[in-house]
Design goal:
Blueprint (H helix, E strand, L loop, with lengths): L2 H26 L2 H5 L3 H7 L5 E3 L3 E4 L3 E2 L5 E7 L4 E8 L6 E6 L7 E6 L5 E9 L2 E11 L6
Parallel strand pairs: 1-9, 3-9
Antiparallel strand pairs: 2-4, 4-7, 5-6, 5-8, 8-9
């Protein structure tokens, strides 16, 4: 085998090793749900049909956000067999902020920073089995974060 052929073979293998995970990630990303501009449409695209209120979803957000461009959100689900956690903000240009999937016994806990256009509820929807649970907390935004 010549050196050039060997380099082509190795570079092709590296390219496949990096492209395959990106393709897999794209397959699980629900583009339509993230691009919709209405809360109920985003929930439909996530196949959320009916939700039950649950205090087992713990949401930690500030009561007042000085700047809507950086609002820290912390979510922990104490619901057994939590599969997904979705974070939505109704009054944002695109309400679906994040959608996390959990497997293999991963602890259903996330911390992230989001942008909020104006005062609104931060709504969390948890999927466990074939059921959906929800909780929400209102955040007063003092300075607009989405421009």
């Amino acid at each position: 085998m010549q050196r050039r052929d060997f380099v082509k073979l190795i570079s092709g293998a590296f390219a496949m090793a990096f492209i395959a995970p990106i393709t897999a990630f794209a397959a699980i990303w629900n583009k339509a749900a993230f691009e919709t501009n209405k809360l109920n449409e985003a929930e439909k695209k996530l196949e959320i049909n009916s939700e039950k209120f649950s205090q087992d979803i713990l949401i930690t957000v500030p009561d007042k956000a000085e700047n809507g461009a950086i609002v820290q959100v912390e979510v922990k689900s104490n619901i057994p067999n939590t599969e997904t956690i979705s974070i939505l903000v109704e009054k944002n240009p695109t309400p679906l902020i994040a959608h996390f999937k959990f497997s293999n016994g991963a602890e259903p806990f996330v911390v992230t920073r989001i942008k909020m256009a104006e005062t609104s509820n931060v709504k969390v929807v948890v999927k466990a089995g074939n059921q959906y649970f929800t909780n929400a907390k209102n955040v007063i935004v003092l300075e607009n974060g989405c421009g």
